[in-house]
Amino acid sequence: MGTRTLPHPWLRLLPLVIGAVIAVTAASVVLGQNAFAATVFSDDFEDGNADGWSKSGGDWSVVTDGSKALRQTKATTDNARQFAGSTSWTNYTVSASVKPLSYGSGGFVALLARSTGSTTFFRLALLPGNTVQLQAVNSGAVTVLGSASRSTATGTYYTLAIEANGSTIRGLVNGAQVASASSSLTATGRIGLQTAYSTASYDTVVVTTGTTTPPSPSASATSGPTPSASASPRPSPSASSSPPSTSWPTPTGQAPVNNGTIPVSGVFDGGMKRYCCIGDGGQGESQDPVFELAPGATIKNVILGAPAGDGIHCLGDCTIQNVWWEDVGEDAATFLGGSNYYVIGGGARHASDKVFQHNGPGTVHISGFYTEDIGKLYRACGNCTNSYQRHVVIDNVRVTGTDIVAGINTNWGDTARFTRITVLGDPSHSTIICDKYKGVPKGSEPTHIGSGADGVNCFYSTADITWQ
């Protein structure tokens, strides 16, 4: 199902609160630096509609394009737009999978941020001729903030992102910066999608707020201060999101993995085929992954058969959408580098140890996921070469036959936040929601030091957990 998450009203005051705290004490500067990103909006259109979006021009509809996507098909209009989100949003990053279908003369396909009206916003535009521009649009008047030569081919998905932080505006394509500039055009506003004399498909639109730059390994390897609740807000659950499915999908076909690991850049849509096989299905270290995602890549609509080796490796920021592991081998996915990683929908079963292994810095966001017969859903590495501070945000998941939902290292300032967790078939409530460890250098084993909510590292209340 498509998911949309809008912020709790107090989140709109967050920049003022943080600003006031920073002005008072130097310690709060550290808190601000340690704050992690929170997902405040997401839509993959899998629910078959564009509810929550407001249209202005063009012919828009949700279509099947491998997965569901929002498509604009009127090539003769000079201004087709869709807007969503809050006019009070300030500092945030919006990203989307964008596929140009056709370019007309003077046309473009774009992602918008900080829109204060239908003609005032920041825009990251794909133009014909392999050009990408970051623009400030003021009542329709365009100022080019930066430009770069990048592929903009039709029929190909690209991951576009705009980071708006104060007056600094950055544009990225497939995780690589194309432009960065300072502009005071607008400090707040909604997100948007736009085409001009062009047609395009849009998928996996995500908005995050908060600081995304991870601390250095040397700084985070000590106990240090941990983020406060005000510096690291928990996203408000979306009442419109449906619980994840517990039914395993049927493959549409077989896709033998005959030539080793499959590299992915941009967007890879597997069409719900079963990809198999790599490895021996055991817990042996250093097995090859089936897929290796380049920074900014998205993989969607894939079933991993057994054996699946080390599953999926994310080399940087990535999105894993509607991916199902029939039998987890070593790990389902490993997050190696980047700031934000998104697991949206899908499921995994038969993992004797963990499903998601977080080795790099940053935040893993898991939503709409289902597990059965596993050890841990998520584990922040407790003895990797680099001892980063790591964070996980888990919302709207169902687990059954699961020992631990998340394991973190409190001495490095890790945090785990949980909303709408449903534990199935566990009348004794034996599943541990948040497990705590003392992280150690590589070559040693982490020490278990406790479990449960504490308002410091493990954030959840009794209302966040449902036992069925």
From TrEMBL:
Any GO BP: pectin catabolic process
Transmembrane regions: none
SUPFAM superfamilies noted in UniProt: Concanavalin A-like lectins/glucanases, Pectin lyase-like
Subcellular location: Secreted
One Pfam family linked to the record: Pectate_lyase
Keyword Signal carried by entry: yes
GO molecular function: hydrolase activity; pectate lyase activity
Main location: secreted
Domain of life: Bacteria
Residues in 3-keto-alpha-glucoside-1,2-lyase/3-keto-2-hydroxy-glucal hydratase domain copies: 44-206
Chain intervals for the UniProt region annotation (Disordered): 208-263
Catalysis performed (reactions): Eliminative cleavage of (1->4)-alpha-D-galacturonan to give oligosaccharides with 4-deoxy-alpha-D-galact-4-enuronosyl groups at their non-reducing ends
Listed cofactors: Ca(2+)
Similarity-based family: Belongs to the polysaccharide lyase 3 family.
Protein name: pectate lyase
Organism of provenance: Allocatelliglobosispora scoriae
